[in-house]
Amino acid sequence: MMKRIFALLLTVLMVLGALGGCGNTPAANDTTSPATTEADEPKQFLKVLTLGHSLAVDANHMLALVAAAEGYDGLEVGTLYYSGCPLWRHVEYIKNDERAYDLYYSKSSSAANPPQIISDVSMKDALVYRDWDLIVMQGGTFELAEADKFTDGNIQTIQEYVNEHKLNKNAVFAWHMPWAFATDPSLQEVYVKQTGAATNVYTEGYKAYNNDRLVFYNKTCENVENYILTDDTFKLMIPTGTAMENAMSSYLTEKELIRDYAHANDYGRLIAAYTWYCKLANVEQLDDIKLTTIPKNFLKTYTGAGDMTLTETEKAILIESVNNALKQPLQQTQSQFAEAPTA
User: Fold this and answer.
1) What pTM was computed for the model?
2) Domain 2-24+42-327 sits in which CATH superfamily?
3) Is 236 helix (H, G, I), strand (E, B) or coil?
4) pLDDT digit string (tens) for 82-123?
5) How far apart (Å, rounded) are the C-alpha atoms in residues 326 and 238?
6) Suppose 144 and one of 47, 96, 139, 187 were both cysteines; which one would form an S-S bond, judging by CB atoms 3.0 to 4.6 Å apart?
């Protein structure tokens, strides 16, 4: 089914001239794109905007960097951010055109620099910032596992607003499925210390799922299967949550992928970015990855000096986790790396 979904998306983008690999050239209003010569490989162009929250920021933080390293030139990435933003809050903000968001923006032609942040923007501001080809939606925090949040009409209200204001009238929708929150008490305590909150609201929210990450993940998959993959308005689904669960079926623990109750660490962000890259670039299987050293200015949790370089095992787990998510997007696949390598 996912192959059929991507085939439809690809057909739309071919008509738009969005993918240079199909013989396209830069858009006429894109003065920042490098000029091509006869000796150059065909350039690829795709503009992606995500309407999300911090998990989308995590997933997209290294996306342009990954795309550039893998030879996918011209990818533009925008992430509209409001902390934990549920779908109903998006609806409230668009009613009043509230400038409540930050817009994170990056482009692979300048991937040496982290995404720039544009503050105090409305959803309309973000929609007209570029002529986006793909608009990615996702649920807010615990909405991901709550079936009624997929049937209350908010998804359709947001889509109607996007269709009204988007510059590229042929832009299509995609859905991002993030990862389930951590249940390790020490990671949840990080949140409490960071915010000064008396209690962790995410611990309270997890009571409905028996404080079990896999229960939360499985409910999320169930909702995607029932309400997103059956919705013809969504032409692509990005299974980041499954790639992360695949990695956590190895010897790696939550602490080695997640930095607090929910947010990904640098390694987790890289797994997420490669999942997105594969879906956007129509890569069915990773045989290798070119980005194995992360520049220091992209790092958030790495404690070493200078850049972060993946070990061979970390690289292998990333490739395995992403590939298994591409094959089985709504089911965790047990990793073959059950035991940590000996020193």
Assistant:
1) 0.86
2) SGNH hydrolase (3.40.50.1110)
3) strand
4) 998 999 999 999 999 999 999 999 998 878 889 999 999 999
5) 9
6) 139
